[in-house]
Write a structure and sequence with these properties.
- About 80% of the residues lie in helices and about 0% in strands.
- The chain is an all-alpha fold.
Length: about 60
């Protein structure tokens, strides 16, 4: 997946699922890593990172 596609997909996931989308992306990566699907897991980690950037820093 290209960088632009990753950011578009990350934005769509955040819009559809809200903050829980980040946890879902992380879980997808974990599941894929356990299955040995390392390239797909890497893509999900990238999507997770993009969503974290979009969300911005935590506020207390």
């Amino acid at each position: 997946m290209r960088e632009m596609e990753i950011h578009d997909y990350a934005r769509q996931l955040l819009e559809a699922h809200g903050p829980k989308a980040i946890a879902e992306a992380a879980q997808n990566a974990i599941d894929l890593e356990q299955k040995g699907e390392l390239e797909l897991a890497k893509t999900w980690r990238h999507i997770e990172g993009a969503m974290k950037l979009m969300r911005g820093p935590h506020q207390s």
